[in-house]
Amino acid sequence: MLTGQTAIVTGSTSGIGLGIAEKLAAKGANVVVNSYSDKTEDHAIAAGIASRHGVEAVYVKADMAKPDECRDLVEQAAVRFGRLDILVNNAGIQHVAAVEDFPVERWNAIIAINLSSAFHTIAAAVPHMKAAGYGRIVNIASAHGLRASPYKAAYVSAKHGVVGLTKTVALELAGKGVTCNAVCPGFVLTPLVETQIADRAKETGLDRETVIREIILEKQPSKQFATVEEIAAATAFLASKDAAQITGTTLSVDGGWTAQ
Ligand code: NAD
Questions:
Q1: 10 C-alpha vs ligand 1 centroid, how far in Å?
Q2: Looking at the structure, do residues 218 and 231 belong to the same domain, yes or no?
């Protein structure tokens, strides 16, 4: 159980991040829910988590594309709860294009949100965790942190970078009670993947089910999506005291993709 601990989950108003926030709260952690939009619904998501699980949950707006806001998110959480035990770097976006056509603005945004944000939040969180002699950092990378696919230059580069960052931080903190690991999901049916399905259906003229079976899940041997709950469970395990000697590693939840 994580009773009394404080967890930050970046990008947690939707998809995998929301599932992780919900799971950590179910285990007793107080959670900081984050996105960049600051809508009434965002605050309602935090309120819902708090009331369902009997914990404190607050929404903090921070744009993970902006270094100062990444760092400020961590400081706000530490001030609000007086401790910081768990940091989950989950915020991420995708764009699919051939490398020669890849918009520079999309490359910059993906590197900023999917990779650099984790550097900034970790840099801000580590002093708190070191001082406490305890911390759990979990980065949501991807099967694309371990394998490439065409037309995803920025995403594959960022996610490989996240795996490298994970290993480096783990080495720097080894023996100090602070671990750093990455979860590498295969395809999970979230809004991020729904967009890819719709785009591929439009391009190919195939129906949704055919696109899922023959294009999206082509590399995933199980031919099944991983679920948000499965990614959340893997994250909660790495965030637990039981995972004390697991650091600098990747945990694939990908239906066999990276066994190939
Ligand atoms: P999603 O689109 O459902 O959720 C992304 C979340 O990130 C949202 O809450 C959004 O508000 C937030 N976000 C986006 N830009 C942000 C910004 N600038 N600042 C703050 N928050 C921002 O996507 P998802 O599928 O749940 O993806 C979550 C993570 O899991 C991402 O890092 C993604 O790369 C990774 N992942 C997803 C899959 C998959 O198949 N869905 C597979 C492997 C890895």
A1: 9
A2: no
